[in-house]
Structures are given as structure tokens and as C-alpha cells.
């Protein structure tokens, strides 16, 4: 859209500042994992299966001295959270509260938004283990296939700070997303071709956006053992939602590590606004 393209240079500075984690409510107390994003995190995990949402979270959250960021999740077509259980538990082990929509048709994002509402209620409930432990100011959205499109759809929610659509289906409009995006494709995906994911990336010229194409991955690589998807998604959310500076260099600056890792990635692209996000301090 021409009007938006003309506004990009004027808004670039503000957007780049928005791409960096906020320091107004920064919590630097999350344990470092020393860059081992694909290894289990320091938290034991628990699962709470509800009628609309399944929660994956740090088991001892009631004793936690801090509030924990949220990731809302959307499933692929006809899939349920249990299909992605290893990935969702992996995020929970790193300190995130994952609210996974139970619906197998997540494209509208209604159940994903309901996950945020549920956690707001649990946070306010003095009888809940989540009471005063949910960081509702730090929310990310992710999902696979149809759920990846749903992550883009809920990216227009003012409560959602960043999105990671994984092999997203076509029924979404990235023009309404307001936070940074890491869009992931599979090199050998014959269901959601990489060119379709690149289309979302190309259209996301109003936000910092990165496109990553996982070498040799097909559409179902993320199902079950998430393999090459767990590390980069964890690093992205730890940087965006936890202020984990160790994760910054994975994506930003001249030393961008995923850009140099041709063993894992068959294609990595960063748009001009992503290129303006500072890398690690020397």
C-alpha cells in the first residue's frame, strides 16, 4: 500500500525502538541458559488441560519471585496441542506460560485471544497458582500451519508484542501486525510452500521482520520432536519477552548467528527495519 510505504521512513526510528524489549517493566531475573536454546530450560513443567485452553507452564510458578511472559499457540488444521507437546513444554521449561488453543480450526484466532483472557483471570484470582505471576505486558503469539496464520491474525491484538508464525497458511493479513515477526518456513514443505511464507515477510515492511527457511524441513518437521524449530523460537521469545541479551545476537546486528548458519538454514532474510535493530554490544 503506497501510503504505508511512504510512512515507513518516518516511523522507522519508533519501530526499531519498539522491536527491542521494553525496559519499563524489565525482569532480568530469568536464569541464563548460556545460549543453549534447544536444550531444556531450568524450569520443571506442568500441564493444565481446560475446555478451551491447555496451559503449559513452570511447575513451581506459585513460588516464583517474578511474573512470567505468555505465548499463545494455534494448532494446524485438525490438530490439537498434544501434537506439539514437546515444543510447548520446551518453551515452558524456559519460563514461559504457554496458552495453547484446543481448537483444531484456529485461523480466526478467537481461542488464542481467549487464552490471554484466561490467564488475566487466573492472574487476578488469589486462589490460582498463577496469581500475580503472569506478565500480561509481555505476550507473544505462535502457531503452525493454520495456527501460524492465526498467530498473524492475533498480531493485531494490542496485547500481543511479537509473533512467530511457523509455516503459516494463507488466510491472514500481516498489514495489521504491530510487533516484530520471525516467519519460519521449511525448505521441503509441499503444503505451505516457502514462497508463501516469503509473501508474508515481503509484505511486512512496516515492522522488523525476519524470514528463516529451515534446511530440509517439511511441513511436519515441527510435529512431535520439533527438532530445528525449538532453538530459534526459544531464542526469539527469550529476547523479545525476557530481555535475554544472549539471544539478541542470534538475529540482529552484523554478527547475526542464524544468518551464518547455513547448515540449519537454507535461506535467511532480514528486512530494513530488522537491520536497524542493534546487535550485541562489542
Please provide a written account of the structure:
The chain has 282 residues and is of the alpha/beta class. The protein has one domain: Rossmann fold (3-Layer(aba) Sandwich), CATH 3.40.50. Helices cover 31% and strands 20% of the residues. It is built from nine helices and nine strands. Strands 1-2-4-3-5-6-7-8-9 form a nine-stranded mixed β-sheet, with helices on both faces. Helix 4 links the parallel strand 5 and strand 6. The longest helix is centred in the N-terminal third of the chain and has 18 residues. The radius of gyration is 17 Å and the shape is globular. The N and C termini lie far apart (38 Å).
Labels describing this entry:
282 residues, alpha/beta, Rossmann fold, nine-stranded mixed beta sheet, 31% helix, globular, disordered N terminus
Structural class: alpha/beta
Q: What percentage of the residues does DSSP assign to strands (E)?
A: 15-25%
Most strands sheet: 9 strands, mixed
Number of helices: 9
CATH topology: Rossmann fold
Name of the CATH superfamily:
Alpha/Beta hydrolase fold, catalytic domain
Strand count: 9
State the helicity in percent bands.
25-40%
The low-confidence parts are: 1-27
CATH class: Alpha Beta
- Look at the structure and give the mean pLDDT: 91
Count of folded domains: 1
Give the topology string: H per helix, E per strand.
HEEEHEHEHEEHEHHHEH
Strand order of the largest sheet: 1-2-4-3-5-6-7-8-9
How does the overall form come out from the CA principal axes?
A: globular
CATH architecture: 3-Layer(aba) Sandwich
User: How far from one another are the termini?
Assistant: 38 Å
How many whole angstroms does the radius of gyration measure? 17 Å
